[in-house]
């Protein structure tokens, strides 16, 4: 996704947890977007004024100014800017307060990085912040196709049914075709930033995908021993 002038989309990430902002920034840069991270509300407003982001990922609980107050100041600086709230609180009244104050959407910690990206893509499209006519929802590698909006997956025109986790894993592989992805990278992107599991869960779900994607066909999912996994067209 790009701006109407062809330049990369700009995302401002505001959270006081350095490990979280680092992971989010890395994930968003994988999308080809420009990212700026700030740890407090005052710094976020200054960054919005100077940098003019296209969307903001905003933590509700900040050390200096609460997220709802920051939201109002952001809208004063960049009217109509889409804001995705991050919150560790899941009470209904907190969600209502955020949306009533002008937030566009929210995710509750812990969350999948893929979910944050998908929600941002939707917000950017609805806000008209990206160039029109971009086929952003369809990923295609060889004869394998995945629709990010409908969650439909086909190979050679045959529908393949996946669980939610299998879908997220395949989506990550397809967004990085021919690239070797380590178990650590896959855990961070598919199982959320604070997942405490072991790498064998990746092996398990790769085996599930292979049964559905590669069974009876030329393989697309490959293992690079000691390095990770990659997906590429079967003809290569």
TrEMBL record:
Residues in the DNA-binding region annotation: 136-233
Keyword annotations of the record: DNA-binding, Phosphoprotein
Domain Response regulatory: 10-124
InterPro entries: CheY-like_superfamily (IPR011006), OmpR/PhoB-type_DNA-bd (IPR001867), Sig_transdc_resp-reg_C-effctor (IPR016032), Sig_transdc_resp-reg_receiver (IPR001789), WalR-like (IPR039420), WH-like_DNA-bd_sf (IPR036388)
Residues bearing the modification 4-aspartylphosphate: 59
CDD domains per the UniProt record, alphabetical: REC_OmpR_MtPhoP-like, trans_reg_C
Source superkingdom: Bacteria
Pfam family, one: Trans_reg_C
Keyword Phosphoprotein appears in the UniProt entry: yes
Gene3D superfamilies the record matches: 3.40.50.2300, 6.10.250.690, Winged helix-like DNA-binding domain superfamily/Winged helix DNA-binding domain
Name the UniProt record assigns to this protein: Response regulator transcription factor
Provenance organism: Streptomyces smyrnaeus
